[in-house]
Amino acid sequence: MSCQWPIDPSCWPKLCEDIDKQRMQYAADSAVAVLWALTGRQFGVCPAIVRPCPTRCDTGLYPYDPYLYPGANLPAPMPVIPIWEDGAWRNISCGCRGRCSRSGPTVVHLPGPVQAVDAVEIAGEPLDPGEYQLEGDYLYRLDGQWPSQDLGAAIGKPGTWAVRYQRGVPPPAGAATHVGQLAMEFFNACSGGKCRLPRRVQTVTRQGMSMQMIDPTDLFGAGLTGIDTIDLWIRAHNPARLATGPKVR
Question: For 185-211, what is each residue's pLDDT tens digit?
Fold first, then answer.
């Protein structure tokens, strides 16, 4: 899994053997994958790359009155918004012609949520970070316009440009602690240590006393691990037991 999750290793033992270090890394990867799935696959910041196609505005960027210039070879009028300013009515416009929205040659919308922009590359060359600014999921060019995009050519070729950035929702508070704890349980299960993960044992009889254990398949089917503190955290962040986050199409 390439998405970033924090890990708190404070509960881990000191590992000297390479095999144990390898086991712990596998255990940490498994813990991240399990908690990511059990919280609805909605958390994690992942590297992404996109090739935006900026919106081009028409050449006529000014409003005009067609009644004053009948038959003039001019672009269609740009909708304007009247506002009262400094004791007088003024007509203003914004965005590309026909829309008052964040669209145009100087801004592109990145599929979000966007956490940070790592690099902008134009024809394979990195752009100075001082020449662009991220605002939410919108990337603005501060000096000039974004170039056109040739999607018929590979990234790095003339006429192409790309944005490399970090996309996703950061894991909520407590994620690092619970990833570390669950990783320790996976490590113990692999190395033969004491493990709190439930086994497939339903009835235990000791000293004449019988105890009915919870079937672990019931726990896992309910999206739980069997470790109470971790399960409380899972339920707090995925109370509806979603398998994945909702999407709108």
Answer: 999 887 766 666 665 555 556 666 655
